[in-house]
Design brief:
Layout (H helix, E strand, L loop, with lengths): L3 E4 L2 E3 L5 E7 L3 H4 L2 E6 L6 E6 L5 E3 L7 E6 L4 E6 L8 E7 L2 E2 L3 E5 L2
Parallel strand pairs: 2-11
Antiparallel strand pairs: 1-3, 3-8, 4-5, 4-9, 5-6, 7-8, 9-10, 9-11
């Protein structure tokens, strides 16, 4: 059983920044890739960014150049740095590894 706990969501200003964290209960990020997903109101959950066990990253076109995924394996934590926020970034953000999901953290971008 793997537990994932997200934190760092909240209210962000358009053009501002937020950083999300996903802490795992074990050293799973050393062995497996993981992804950050988001679900906007009335929309399907979508993959925003992913990072492999080796550190290779991929991003959705909508966040390329603005979001950065990274990990600290020693802390069993993966991060999502979100810059130049837009209102359309609003949603619940989830981290996922294999079949396990975190509980989600709300991000709202509004002035």
């Amino acid at each position: 059983q793997v537990q994932l706990v997200e934190s760092g969501g909240g209210l962000g200003q358009p053009g501002g920044s937020l950083r999300l964290s996903c802490a795992a209960s074990g050293s799973i990020f050393r062995m497996y890739g993981m992804g950050w997903y988001r679900q906007a109101p009335g929309k399907q959950r979508e993959l925003v960014a992913s990072i492999s066990s080796g550190g290779s990253t991929n991003y959705a076109d909508s966040v390329k150049g603005r979001f950065t995924i990274s990990k600290n394996s020693a802390k069993n934590t993966v991060y999502l740095q979100m810059n130049t926020l837009k209102p359309e970034d609003t949603g619940v953000y989830y981290c996922k590894v294999l079949r396990w999901w975190g509980q989600g953290t709300q991000v709202t971008v509004s002035s």
